[in-house]
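Standup notes
- HV: blocked on the assembly model, inputs below
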Amino acid sequence: MMEMSNELNERAIGVFDSGVGGLTVLAELQKYLPNESFLYLGDTARVPYGSRSPETIIRYSKRVAGHLVRKKIKALVIACNTATTYAYEELRKSCKPFNIEVFGVIEPGAKSALAKTRNNHIAVLGTEGTIKGKKYNEILHRLSAQIQIQEKACPLFVPLIEEGWHHTEVAEIIAEKYLHDIQEVDTVILGCTHYPLLKRLLQKIRPNMTFIDSAESTARFIRASLTEKNLLSTTSEAKTSYLVTDNLERFERVGYYFLNHPPHPLELIDIQDSDELA
Amino acid sequence: MMEMSNELNERAIGVFDSGVGGLTVLAELQKYLPNESFLYLGDTARVPYGSRSPETIIRYSKRVAGHLVRKKIKALVIACNTATTYAYEELRKSCKPFNIEVFGVIEPGAKSALAKTRNNHIAVLGTEGTIKGKKYNEILHRLSAQIQIQEKACPLFVPLIEEGWHHTEVAEIIAEKYLHDIQEVDTVILGCTHYPLLKRLLQKIRPNMTFIDSAESTARFIRASLTEKNLLSTTSEAKTSYLVTDNLERFERVGYYFLNHPPHPLELIDIQDSDELA
């Protein structure tokens, strides 16, 4: 079997995030692409990206991508909304010479939201960086002329989830506060890969709104694209491994909330300034 | 005047933290040492240190120290409990060849708490890293044989303060949750340089306890030490400047909560792997 398959098809798909958040995307990818191997990289020595400047996010993303490209991946998934906002175009350019497809999480989420909304009022929740970058805004307006958009940065959601408090009363009060002005919309994009863990709670607070988790739409989009490009694995020897740049123990502990199993095998790696892609 | 003074005495005191938290220490230093100049460095490209591994905290601290040492400082204040926990000894060693005194925030805070407690029950609140490092524990036990210590990591306090929510009901609920088991102690060490902003709220929840803000005791300790070593400035041309490694705008905005004035003059600098002190 192996001899028949194309070497390129059997390469892993690289998936990266600043930390654990991208695991929501990884889980959907595993569901939609059960024959594929994944190499997940959480840049935990530099997490979070969500409150950093565009320049720093681009620099960190290019270092991570450089590391993954050297591992011979066939595609790169930016499983982080903030990194997609600022580094998607740069990474596409940098990965082109290596023939590596680059996918972000924003366009698929935006398209799902447009397919759902009935009143053309959409809200986007995200980190400070994602909201300030206005990428959802730009894409939604490009795809639909009459859409109205409300955006809200929710910086406490990530630490709340990482503390494991996303089912508590505290989470409910904080969510009520952030959603206070979100009233007229019928569709809300969870514009941060951590937020799916709050979906049930948010749904309870705003039962009339649809919450869009971009992980699933991203996975569907990637499956379609790899299929079209004939890049799917032809064997079923799928495996996933995890790399982090710091604090294995914390990644294991918090990663469990996201996967319901430990992220194994897990390896600590070092990423240097010099890993940056040209 | 300037001609009379010793060049070394007129050098600035370097103060560093991963971000804004150390500004509580800086403010006390300015109060206790009004003739001194300060160079504050917030390593905002790598903030927060509190959830990172010891190795990474040491590495980042040594890069920051390397940068400040090249700026010709006369003393270095580690205005961060997590960096003091893991990097104090290393930085002392690395700074010795440059004749630069290194100060941390833990020992002064521990001594203040020991001076206050009547029932010999002390609690320490801090980041994950600080609590796990058990430095307060070690120092308190070294200084007093019969002390009992309770430790509690409070990872949501920092993002809560940085969101500007430290006076809200949310802060109160979160604080109640963290303080739930803190009952028998009479003295609580605020083992993170952000936490003084929560002092009034914590005091309200536990009116019978004394909350120790290590910023003030650190400033008093440093004044005594510089006086003893004849290192005080002899002019009154004090000035403070601020350096950050990322996101000027955010540092200005959040820094305001800490200083009640904008942190100016403020400059964006780049710190590289190669800045690391030997």
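- HV (later): unblocked. Residues 54-70 of chain B form the longest helix (17 residues). The radius of gyration of chain B is 18 Å.
- Next: hand off to the docking folks.
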